[in-house]
């Protein structure tokens, strides 16, 4: 996925949480723009303990080539799926 596609979602006003789906079936929710560090070929996503937090408990690194789709997430339904 081109980094510009993610950048548009991160810079949207107002920000709307979204879910990224990876080629291995894993999905991660981006609940706040400050929890994602975007690069040209990869991203680092901070995973918070609660949806209202902007401090992460752990991080995951994702190669942008493995993102197969993104979708908006309704408030209160955020989650992390996949390997913990």
Q: Reading side by side through the largest sheet, how are the strands ordered?
A: 2-1-6
First and last CA, distance: 23 Å
Cα-based radius of gyration, to the nearest Å:
12 Å
Q: Shape from CA axes?
A: globular
Helix share, percent: 10-25%
Give the domain tally. 1
The CATH class name reads Mainly Beta
Count every beta strand, where a strand is a DSSP E run of 2 or more residues. 6
Rounded mean pLDDT is: 90
- Percent range for β-strand residues: 35-45%
Number of helices: 1
CATH topology group: SH3 type barrels
Largest sheet entry: 3 strands, antiparallel
What CATH architecture do you see?
Answer: Roll
Low-confidence stretches: none
Give an account of the 3D structure:
With 84 residues, the protein is mainly beta. The chain has one helix at residues 3-11, and strands at residues 18-22, 27-30, 36-38, 42-48, 56-63, 67-72. It has one domain (3-72): SH3 type barrels, CATH 2.30.30. It contains 1 helix and 6 strands; from the N terminus they run H-E-E-E-E-E-E. The strands form 2 sheets. The chain has a 3-stranded antiparallel β-sheet with strand order 2-1-6, with no helix packed on it. The termini are far apart. The model has no long low-confidence stretch (mean pLDDT 90).
């Amino acid at each position: 996925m081109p980094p510009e596609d993610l950048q548009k979602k991160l810079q949207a006003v107002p920000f709307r949480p979204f879910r990224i789906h990876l080629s291995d079936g894993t999905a991660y929710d981006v609940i706040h723009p400050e929890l994602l560090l975007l690069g040209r070929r990869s991203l680092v996503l901070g995973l918070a303990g609660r949806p209202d937090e902007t401090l992460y408990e752990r991080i995951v690194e994702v190669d942008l080539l493995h993102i197969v789709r993104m979708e908006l997430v309704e408030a209160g339904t955020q989650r992390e799926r996949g390997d913990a």
